[in-house]
Amino acid sequence: MPRLLALALLLPSLLMQGAAAAELPPVTLHYQERPPYYQTRPDGGVQGLVIDSLLRALVRGGLPYRLALTPSQRQLLLIEEGQGLDCGIGWFRNPARETKGRFSAMLYRDQPLGLIARASLGWPEAIGMREALMRGDARLLVKQGFSYGAQFDGLLAQRTRAPESSSAEVPVLMRMLHADRADWMPVAPEEGQWLLSLPTNPPVPPGSFQLLRFADAPPGASRHLYCNKAVPADWLQRLDDALK
Question: What superkingdom does the record give (predicted)?
């Protein structure tokens, strides 16, 4: 009887919450293809380290949404200059973006920055960031216009030898390493594990490259849902509650 009474008292509140969720409009959630953070499954669904926790929270909060595969620059336009109910999945917070949109609670925190290096360099499993960057005998490859964090970027600016650079996506950079265009590149460990698992053409002997870590790398940045200000505050609040 006490349990039945408690349920009877709780039921109206649950019904009110369900009705409120039903009244909220659907929000379009944009993602890009970037394993292992986000990727489209063969059956058309979406999975990944960042998106999995988001999808669970959306179900838990009873929130209406739709998913869309959208390039990152297009996402920014929709969020910062558009008028629709749009959010980008997995964006980093910074002061400039805070003025143009709204952020959810944390979806995922990256592991500290690591690196993929040619095994023939003989580098230890953990190497100092400055030591790696100042090694003149090792050719560095970076993604053009990309930030690897304040500590790495600051040390990179002190390097006298310019690195190899490319605006291509990270799998292309990995192929550049295979083609002997460089000896190492900084990478998120999660992404590095995936890159080393990819098949190569022509084949690369196993063990040719290693995933190492920076001994002095700071904690990884947190990823969030970055939303247009037109997205209802109630929708984001309900999501934040579900994420917690």
Answer: Bacteria
**pLDDT of res. 8:** 47
| Best CA proximity match to 187, nearest among 159, 209, 202 | 209
> Which domains are present in the chain?
2-109+222-243 (3.40.190.10), 114-214 (3.40.190.10)
Cα–Cα distance between 167 and 143 in angstroms, integer? 6
Cα 4 to Cα 227: distance, rounded to the nearest angstrom = 41
Report pTM.
0.78
Mention every residue, 6+ apart, whose C-beta is less than 8 A from residue 231. Answer: 27, 85, 86, 87, 102
Q: What is the predicted pLDDT for the residue at 19?
A: 47
Asked whether 25 and 32 are in contact (CB, 8 A), the reply is no
CA distance 101 to 98: 6
Structure tokens given for 38: 């986000």
Task: Please enumerate in sequence order all residues whose Cβ is within 8 A of that of 193, keeping only pairs 6 or more positions apart, or say none.
Answer: 36, 211
Pick out the chain residues at pLDDT < 70. 1-22
Dist. CA 240–CA 162, nearest whole Å: 43
pLDDT at 169: 84
Residue 96: count of CB within 10 angstroms of its CB: 8
